[in-house]
Backbone:
């Protein structure tokens, strides 16, 4: 009795949390960095949104590897989520393309601009030359690479750079000013790249100007300290994708590896976008937007309504058949089944799981799977009761002897879900992944409701009844 009471308390606490999670006016969970609105997330096929096709922008003869695409996919996902674009999916297609889907998104200009940028930040010494923000430059990494190799002990440099080289013209790259005259783009040597940065954040000064603060790793901080000590009152341009972001003067030696990127052109949006690019690294290869299109909901609210109706009909049929075949135990199992549906939906909102139509289909399918364990248990109970066992003993033996079949069948289903998930993840079939995820969650929740909830409810109700006095309450 003590064991059953403890289990009953656990079940009631879980159910109370599930009911709270499914409340229509749920405020969500906001604890530190854990932030969940507890809203139902619908996929692109149900909500509509935006689809963007990115293609590697490489010079003739260059190639991109699958590893590069995988790294770029993860960086793009991090960038888009940091910009507040939730439920986004990215998948590589072909040998040089990535497809991004943004459910519910209508204004994609800022997101697309952030996604296609390489995000290569460089600290470029310019000596006494001040460069206006937006100025295009060409960056030479030869001396920086030599210094890094020397620091690693792989190359002994023949010269030591003690002064910032004067800019030289880049004969192969020109641009035109407003008068139509051709202007040569200057080349500067890089000091450090953005890979040296860590702990990047956005702040606001006392004057209300936005800035980005950063901290360098130990090795880069030493290089930065040595340079700023020996090049006081010179300019150090901060260049992103070959365009100057800001060009501050070195007013004091920076020996702790900490600094800020600031400029009058920064707004809350541009500063946050730049911080996102720096925080999640540079793309391994540049990408260009080949296609960007708005996608209407191919299925939309009508299909959602039909799916909900199908789920209600399926649930009602299961409830009726369970009561018809198993009477009172079936009714108790139906209570646990309702708990299963509510618990699964609460988990979908908590993770959150983006529901597409295949995902909803997997959820509806799992309703039938959820009663499999109860059917096996109740059939074993009936056999034990026909053999003359008492009600309490029949319940315990029914669970014990049905468990191997329950375990093996659910493990088989989970293995299938794992295979489907791996297949969907490898080949970019997100709808297959959605089906696998919702079905797997359903299996785990059904085990809890069948093994813990139904058994606890049965003991709570049936232990206080005399089977001989109510034979019609039980099916034989």
Residues:
């Amino acid at each position: 009795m003590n064991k059953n009471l403890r289990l009953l308390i656990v079940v009631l606490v879980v159910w109370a949390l599930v009911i709270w999670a499914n409340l229509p006016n749920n405020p969500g969970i906001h604890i530190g960095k854990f932030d969940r609105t507890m809203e139902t997330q619908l996929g692109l096929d149900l909500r509509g949104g935006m689809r963007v096709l990115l293609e590697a922008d490489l010079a003739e003869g260059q190639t991109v590897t699958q590893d590069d695409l995988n790294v770029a996919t993860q960086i793009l996902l991090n960038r888009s989520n940091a910009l507040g674009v939730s439920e986004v999916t990215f998948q590589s297609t072909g040998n040089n393309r990535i497809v991004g889907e943004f459910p519910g998104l209508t204004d994609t200009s800022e997101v697309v601009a952030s996604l296609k940028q390489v995000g290569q930040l460089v600290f470029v010494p310019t000596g006494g030359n001040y460069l206006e923000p937006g100025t295009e430059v060409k960056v030479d990494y030869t001396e920086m690479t030599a210094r890094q190799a020397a620091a690693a002990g792989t190359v002994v440099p023949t010269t030591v750079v003690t002064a910032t080289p004067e800019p030289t013209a880049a004969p192969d790259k020109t641009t035109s000013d407003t008068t139509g005259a051709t202007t040569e783009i200057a080349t500067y040597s890089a000091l450090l790249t953005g890979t040296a940065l860590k702990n990047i954040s956005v702040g606001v000064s006392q004057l209300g100007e936005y800035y980005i603060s950063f901290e360098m790793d130990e090795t880069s901080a030493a290089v930065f300290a040595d340079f700023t000590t020996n090049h006081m009152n010179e300019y150090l341009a901060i260049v992103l994708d070959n365009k100057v972001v800001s060009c501050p003067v070195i007013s004091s030696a920076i020996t702790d590896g900490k600094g800020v990127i600031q400029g009058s052109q920064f707004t809350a949006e541009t500063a946050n976008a730049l911080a996102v690019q720096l925080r999640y690294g540079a793309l391994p290869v540049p990408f260009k937007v080949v296609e960007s299109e708005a996608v209407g909901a191919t299925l939309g609210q009508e299909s959602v309504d039909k799916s909900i109706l199908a789920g209600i009909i399926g649930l009602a049929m299961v409830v009726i058949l369970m009561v018809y075949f198993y009477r009172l135990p079936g009714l108790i199992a139906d209570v646990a089944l309702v708990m299963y549906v509510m618990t699964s939906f609460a988990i979908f909102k908590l993770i959150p799981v983006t529901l597409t139509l295949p995902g909803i289909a997997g959820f509806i399918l799992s309703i039938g799977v959820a009663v499999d364990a109860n059917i096996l248990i109740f059939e074993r109970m009936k056999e034990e009761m026909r053999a003359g066992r008492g009600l309490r003993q029949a319940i315990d033996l029914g669970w014990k002897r049905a468990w191997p079949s329950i375990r093996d069948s659910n493990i088989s289903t989970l293995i299938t879900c794992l295979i489907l998930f791996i297949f969907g993840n490898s080949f970019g079939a997100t709808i297959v992944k959605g089906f696998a995820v919702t079905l797997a969650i359903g299996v785990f929740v059904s085990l809890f409701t069948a093994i813990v909830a139904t058994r606890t409810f049965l003991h709570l109700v049936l232990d206080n009844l005399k089977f001989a006095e109510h034979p019609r309450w039980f099916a034989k």
